[in-house]
Design brief:
Mean pLDDT: 87
Radius of gyration: 21 Å
Distance between the termini: 56 Å
Low-confidence stretches: 27-34
Oligomer: single chain
Length: about 280
């Protein structure tokens, strides 16, 4: 099929980007993907860097607000049972309170995914599928990236023994204090990967990639930011999570699909949960 980019000079860049969605449907119907030049045209239809960061700040603000509301609700319920409850002790217990993790993750997932979809929908001339790179990926490709992720997990686990670092037990304690184990699994294996991938390697990633920072900047910035939000762990784990983010970012670029990183993230969390369940 003749590329739109080959006729971009004749059509004009604006006209070329206007008919790009139609061309995309034809490509997807034939199981094909955009080439790099055609992706460059599509980048012009996404929000710019500063708009992306502004919308991201709103998403983060709502995330913090809802997390605080969940804390307040749980604190109120605890006060009913235990009127002499110490506020400081309660705050410290939240770090290993699996039930709080579950409720907080599930509530904020709705807000994060919902706002990402809303802000993407506000951008005219591009669909949500195009914006976030929801492209189908073959099972063979996913399996190859699963192998890479599994290798990373093995290296991660072995690194504790190699460097003599004590593994954190915060997740084990959270698992034991989860109350509803099924809810905890849903939150960690499904909800968390969905919201974090939508936000980091979906919305923010595309806003940075379309700027002068390019794909490398998008991978590095989203990876570091993703690692930094995991404040419940130690510095070593946050660094490893950032490295994992680089791996996921490369997978997003190579496969041109957010489905890939959502799947890899879920698989990673599933294996982690299985290890925690075995210990508990």
């Amino acid at each position: 099929m003749e590329s739109i980019v080959e006729n971009a000079d004749i059509l004009g860049k604006k006209k070329a980007t206007e008919i790009l969605p139609i061309y995309r449907k034809r490509l997807l119907g034939q199981g094909q993907l955009f080439n790099d030049q055609e992706n460059d045209l599509l980048k012009d239809r996404r929000w710019g860097l500063w708009s992306t960061l502004g919308f991201s700040a709103i998403i983060c603000a709502l995330y913090i607000l809802l997390s605080g509301l969940v804390v307040g609700l749980l604190y109120g319920l605890e006060l009913v049972v235990n009127p002499d409850l110490d506020q400081n002790a309660f705050s410290e217990s939240l770090l290993t309170n699996g039930f709080y993790w579950s409720i907080s993750i599930l509530v904020t997932t709705w807000s994060t995914v919902g706002l990402v979809i809303l802000f993407v929908a506000l951008r005219k001339g591009i669909t949500i599928q195009e914006y976030l790179d929801f492209n189908s990926v073959s099972s063979a490709v996913v399996l190859r990236w699963f192998g890479v992720t599994l290798l990373f997990i093995l290296v991660w686990d072995a690194s504790y023994s190699i460097f003599g670092i004590t593994e954190p037990d915060i997740e084990v304690e959270a698992y034991r204090n989860a109350g509803n184990i099924f809810l905890f699994w849903i939150a960690v294996v499904i909800a968390a990967p969905l919201s974090e991938e939508f936000f980091f390697r979906g919305f923010i990633f595309e806003g940075i990639r379309g700027s002068k920072l390019g794909p490398v900047g998008a991978i590095l910035i989203t990876s570091v930011a993703w690692g930094m939000i995991h404040q419940q762990y130690g510095i070593y784990e946050m660094v490893l999570i950032s490295v994992l983010g680089v791996l996921f970012g490369i997978a997003k670029i190579k496969t041109r699909s957010l489905y890939t990183t959502i799947a890899l993230h879920s698989i990673f969390n599933l294996i982690s949960m299985a290890e925690i369940a075995a210990i508990s």
